[in-house]
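Margin note from the TA: students keep mixing up input and output lines. Inputs are the sequences; the output is the structure of the whole complex. Example:
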Amino acid sequence: MLVIKELQVSFGELIVLKGINLELKKGKVLAVVGESGAGKTTLGLSIMGLSPGKCAGQILFKGKDILALSEEERRLIRGKEIAMVFQNVEDALHPLYPVVDQVMEALLIHGIKDKKAAQRKAMDLLKAFGLSEERTHFFPHQLSGGEKQRVLLAMALANEPEVLILDEPTASLDAITRAEIIKLLKKVIRDKMVLLITHDLSVAAKLAHRVAVLYGGRVVESGATQNIFTFPRHPYTRGLLRSYPNMTTVKDLQGIPGPPYKPVDGCPFHPRCTQRVELCFREVPELKSLGDRYLACHRGGIIPLLEIKALSKSFNGVRAVREVELTLYEGETLALVGESGSGKTTLALTIMGLLPPDKGEIWLEGQKVLLRDKGFYQRVQMIFQNPKESLSHRMNVLELVKEPLDVQGWGSEEEKLERVRKVLEEVELPADDFFLRKYPHELSGGEAQRVAIARALVLDPKLLIADEPTSALDASIQAKILKLLLSLQEKRGLAMLFITHDIALARKVSDRLAVMKDGCIVEEGPASEVITHPKHPYTRTLLRLAADLKEEISISSMDA
Amino acid sequence: MHVDYWQEIREDRLGRIGLYLILLLALLAALAPFLAPYPPEARVGAAFSPPSSRHWLGTNDVGQDIWSCLLYGARTSLVVGCGAGLLAGTISVLVGTSSALVGGFYDSLCMRVVDALLVIPPVLLAILVGAYFKPHLLTLVLLLAAFLWPGGARIIRAEALSLKEKKSVAAARTFGAGSLYIMARHIVPDLGPVWLAVMIQDARRAIFMEAGLSFLGVCDPTLHSWGRMMQQALEFTYLEVWKWWLLPPGLALSLTVAALSFLSFALERILNPRLRGEREDAGH
């Protein structure tokens, strides 16, 4: 077992890694993921005792602290007991020697004295790693990237080390080669302690048992791979997953706001975090156990913004909403999908307080909503189904967008005007005087929709309930408006309850999906999961009937 | 829905007639001191003079110029009509919108009061009240408004109830707006045309009731009023004088009431979309 305790690495004033506590166990793979510059490679090099920086803390291997050993003692361990596959395939091999000689060299350094035997072993090893016999005598430049990676792996594993550190083992490889390398890795690392350093989440998902997410030199979240990737709790982890193109998640790609890490006080992620509080500026959160994972966040991870508990509503005995339970997290989109009449809009109106619930509770940011005052509406806003109807025909654009500010008694007239112009620009509408004086009947459908969105956003809410926000629009305008909402979500951490009957649309915008039928939530889960493995027959029907560009019509196969 | 009510009224034939008649009457009433050849109470000629170039409509039993009385009577009618209409209309809007918006017990209470007032025959009560108070102009306006507002309040409440369901009102609520804001900013502006119709209706009834009360002699006797003129003329129907004394105020009253009826008829046609559809130029 290899244990890293309170590791800190610094280059002069700059602290690159801080307070790292990790364990490598036999036969287990720990992946360290994060953006470039997070300190992943430094971590690998520190374990090897190769880090050029100043290391503090302990790295315990077989009872010995690697950091306390002399350079001579470290040299004996390096390559023999702890081996590393370096990041850059091109530079790690010597260009003037055939690859087999280079593998042989690794064997000769540690133990084997007979050159012939060493060469034979090197050859066997390379063959076992998938290189054909004649290619073992090639020079590095004659090999492909994948083959070089195999050579490097063979070199690292030549002395059968107990600990293997893989630094971006699949970077710059094409998909097929990458798959072969991953397959090979799975075979050869079976009984080793492996630290996998990668920014490629797919590799981590395939190889690692546990994942540690590194940001700004600190572990922000760690736990079992499946847990972390399915339900990320740290905003940074979620950001990583959202910006990673892959075939599992179905939502459109979203980045993480703000520039990459720069040293700051307090939580390293706070400049880019959308749910930061005052505490995050001052104090570094500790990595604490949360049962299934470790998490470093003052707010306990992504906070549940809206919690709906056993909410029911009926009209004249018709139960429109039945015992609905939903949780909406900060900065995520929860799509509520169902046919018309399934109670989606009733649910939205009940949340907004436009309809009194019969039963159940609504919690906002951890507090039960008892009274819907101006403070509530400042945080929760709604875009109504038919945008034009929600705009009073007697008000011009300026008055319309200013109305929420007027109601809330926000700022002076000049400040309001400035805010209106800013929000109009945000929703990509003109903010000139001519446009401000237009009345709703002079606006196109798309413009009216944007004005409605601007009205909902002008108070800078944390939660937006969007009730079929694009049902009245052309697909092209719909696409633009959804892009806009998603970019606002990325920028502001806006949480959205996205109500739609269109599951194809929901798939593109939502992190999680809830399917509603006859007032009940019949299925709920990560959007990708619901789309690929629908459990409820109604979900399957919705999916079968969703828009596609195929010729056949699947209505005949509808469930009775 | 943007409707230019003014334009629509002028395009409607009846509406146009009503409008011009009212304008003419208002002009005559306003300019009465200049148009009237004599002060209405002055005895300027022999009693019962027939119409002549000096006295266009002759004189009455005490030698007052009937044309002058008629002009000044128009003032009373219009002031009472406009005043009572405006006041009753305003009370209607206040009561109607507030009970529509607040709802619950307050709504039931208001509507029961309205019902109670509606079942009382207003003319009868006005006579009773008038007989004891001998109301002057202002009291008369207050009295009439008190009887007229309940009908309007019902109409306004119904309209406000439907306006309340508009999405724009729901949107305003989701910004945290209270009932007062919604009433002032969203409901009342949209009530404008209905309010106008209610007021015209009230004005018509007020004018009629004022004339009735004066005719019965329960009003302040110094008030120059068409109703009073008719009451006085009625005593002398055995003389020729009724032709120029009794007929003109009756005709003027009928014209005024008819003009207001035309106006409210035209307004109703404009406001009711189902009636709008029958217009030849529908789809404008």
